[in-house]
Structures are given as C-alpha cells and as structure tokens.
Amino acid sequence: MPPPLFRYLRLWLLLLTAAGALAGCGLLAAPCRVASAGLKAVPLVGHPAAVPTDSCAATVDP
Question: How far apart are CA 14 and CA 38, in angstroms?
C-alpha cells in the first residue's frame, strides 16, 4: 500500500488534471445539446422549438 502522502498527491494530481480537461469544455452544455437534438427530431415543430436550447448551449460553450 502506498504511503498516505503519495496517495494524496496522486489524488490532487488527478483532480487538477480533470479540472484542466474540463475547463472550457462543452461538458456543461451537453444537457442543452441533448435536449436540442431530441427536439429537432420532432417533425415540423422541432427546429423552432429547439431555438432556446440551442441558445443555451451557445451561451454555456461559445
């Protein structure tokens, strides 16, 4: 078993790497994009109904 200091250092390194990878990422915009894609699948009214979710995704992830 690794010493506690090494374990905490590895945890911090993992957290910093994950934070750096998510910075500026569209991960937060994913729910908006998924909802938009689902709405666009509806014939005739899908594209106009998806405009608010498209703008949500564009605001979160420009």
Answer: 34
Around Cβ 3, how many Cβ atoms within 10 Å? Answer: 8
pTM of the model: 0.55
- Phi first, then psi: give them for residue 51, nearest 5 degrees: -60, -45
Say which residues have a Cβ less than 8 Å from residue 45's Cβ, sequence separation at least 6. Answer: none
Residue 7 near residue 14, CB atoms below 8 Å: no
Confidence of residue 32 (pLDDT cuts 50, 70, 90): confident
Which residue is it, tokens 């994913």? 30
Residues whose CB is less than 8 angstroms from the CB of residue 30 and which lie 6 or more positions away in sequence, other chains included: none
Q: Is the distance from CB of 32 to CB of 26 less than 8 angstroms? A: no
* Tokens matching residue 17: 């790497």
